[in-house]
């Protein structure tokens, strides 16, 4: 649909899957309309889940960030690329040892889930698992190249090129993986958005059907593509990384395009009044 098309079917949605960075906040600034939008979802008997490809912090970190922004949440309100990674490892590679290329928080989450982990390029490492690493060092890059050249499987939490900030952006997991691909010729298997697994897991946890579910995000090639791949409706918001020109660039077509959460809320409230 084009940007100006009405959103009558959005009122019928009950499960709202919300990207965070660039969709509901940017750094420490909560976007206008987010809190009343969340209240609206609750008022109509709906449920929201915060989805993120960002593996650099645990759910407790997001809960604290939300609290500082004025939003009280519970652990069950979140689904991350770490959750999807753990589910995939437990199902497909049980007992396989992973070199964790990421933050200490990422390492701790995997370890607490029972995944065999290490931060050394040991000979018995089966999988190199990359995440968005705010603690990146050259030693990690060297370790990764050693493992990939040795034949370890190459997995990564997400293909995002950048993470938006107040001053522009910083390299995300996808950019670092591209560097490793350039150095070794190996390409990763990405686990988070745009794969549909995060949507499927969200619906399984909450009991909502695809027709009742909508995904809101600011990136076409991860957020919106995830919803499209899962067969659900999507809203592309222009408050973060993406622009309307990206639609043709990436060939990913959202159901709706809106400026931000505030505009969506305004339309929903007008529709309700009518």
Overview of the structural elements:
This protein folds into 2 domains: 127 residues, Rossmann fold (3-Layer(aba) Sandwich); 109 residues, Rossmann fold. Helices cover 38% and strands 20% of the residues. The chain contains 10 helices and 15 strands. The protein has a 6-stranded parallel sheet, sandwiched between helices. Strands 7-6-8-9-12 form a 5-stranded parallel sheet, with helices on both faces. A two-stranded antiparallel sheet has the order 2-3. Helix 1 packs across helix 10. It starts with 14 loop residues before the first strand and ends with a helix. The model has no long low-confidence stretch (mean pLDDT 93).
For the record, what CATH class of the largest domain applies? Alpha Beta
The helix/strand class is alpha/beta
Number of strands: 15
* Second CATH tier, the architecture of the largest domain: 3-Layer(aba) Sandwich
| Terminus-to-terminus distance | 22 Å
Fourth-level CATH superfamily of the largest domain? HAD superfamily/HAD-like
**Order of strands in the sheet with most strands:** 5-4-1-13-14-15
Descriptive key words:
single chain, 274 residues, alpha/beta, Rossmann fold, 2 domains, six-stranded parallel beta sheet, five-stranded parallel beta sheet, 38% helix, globular
List the helices and strands and how they pair.
Elements: E1 15-19, E2 25-26, E3 29-30, H1 34-43, E4 47-52, H2 59-68, E5 78-80, H3 81-92, E6 98-101, H4 104-112, E7 117-118, E8 127-130, H5 138-150, E9 153-156, E10 162-165, E11 168-171, H6 173-184, E12 189-190, H7 197-206, E13 213-217, H8 220-230, E14 233-237, H9 246-250, E15 256-258, H10 261-273
Parallel strand pairs: 1-4, 1-13, 4-5, 6-7, 6-8, 8-9, 9-12, 13-14, 14-15
Antiparallel strand pairs: 2-3, 10-11
Helix pairs in contact: 1-10
